[in-house]
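Quick start: what a row looks like.
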Amino acid sequence: MAVGAVASFTLSYNDLIHQDQTNSFPNKCLTENEMAPTTNCSRKKQLNLPLFQRKLKRMCSSIHQSRRVVVTGLGVVSCLGTGMHFVWDQLLSGTSGITNIKGEAFEQIPSKVVGLVRHGNNPGEFNLTGLPTIDGRAVTQMTQYCLRAAEEALTMAKWKPVQDNDKERTGVCIGTGMIPLEEVVNAGELQRQFHYRKISPWFIPRILINMAAAHVSLAYGFKGPNHSVSTACTTGLHSIGDAFRFIRNGDADVIVAGGCESSVTPLAMAGFARMRALSTNFNATPQVSSRPFDKARDGFVMSEGAALLVLEELDHARQRNAHIYAEILGYGLSSDAKHITAPPEDGRGAQRCMEAALRDSHLKPEQIEHINCHATSTPLGDSVESRAIQSLFKNHSSNILVNSTKGATGHLLGAAGSIEAAFTVMSVYTGTVPATLNLQTPMTGCDLNYVLGSNITWNSKFNPRIALTNSFGFGGTNASLCISEYVV
């Protein structure tokens, strides 16, 4: 299909050139005096650049818009469990994955609550059974989580190509928010005590940001785009959004996209605790410590895991009779340019990335009926995001089902955006919006239609159901993804 699109583009481009050279454009062409001085203008009839550029832009837009992108597989590893359907059931049942952290290394850290992946051989527990053979020296726990999520997503999508041309049209777009800091700590200690010869030759490959993507590509032989994103807590959503555009632009037909993280370590927790970003008021009751939008919220809860989506060009999915869970309609990005860790209080950065996603989707604000928010359970962040929603959607904001699934999962950092994208896919697919766990008394100052207490059946006024999911990160990096129920 991509070859056909390229051929169509070439013919159209040549046609445009031919039209211009035969002076068939209705607009006035540039004369020699109107052209740049460095341009050779021996003839008065010259290329009508403004009109040519407009036609070319419309043609490229048409090519891109004709390549619709759908979701055909989802894989999740989280503190709620492993496997998309298992985790979704846990989320809908109101289960919390948050627990206490134990160990001497964590004793001095004021926050004692975290979201840890459960390991074992019982249903919903993480293990390496059935994964492609990997060299354990080259992978960290984070990469193992990523490989399990990839296996889950590809199995659900029924896409494990064996033909070279299929592998060449399949890519990966996977990132992480932080390098595995304990690897650096341990290597630094070895360097200090024993110098050069005790440093493992696998040290650098284990800590590079792109290694999770690399190992998925190696494990399944994917030879398409191999791309990694690291944009703090926006990583997972940026990865999916970038993959969406790669497919829409014809760079691949299938991409495994998302984020992974395994940063619940003494050093990482100490760093966030020193910023006063973590919850400390609920150490005795960890299950209620992550409480987005709630009046008693006091910081986020660090969590770990991985979440990957299989994105696929629609015609490619149809041709192989793939089951389609949702469609990606648009993607928006913005920067706050305000502060290295704090968003602007007016929420303009968050508002602009949602506006960009709507523009990219060719939608009006009133067509959005659900937003899965970034809301991490911090006093400032939750208020700013709510304010941004009110500013953008105005009176319609009271009709939007607003939730945050971090009440159940905690904050997966670089994997937060992708697990929340997976939950948003399941919401548009099943018509159920999960309640925000631990939201008991909504914060003052923002009157939104928060989903609290119990899950809500999404009776859409439109067909199809359409939602946004947001992610924001340190450095002022923002993303919003528009996800729709798939309609033939």
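That is the whole record. The longest strand covers residues 69-78. The chain is about 35% helix and 15% strand.
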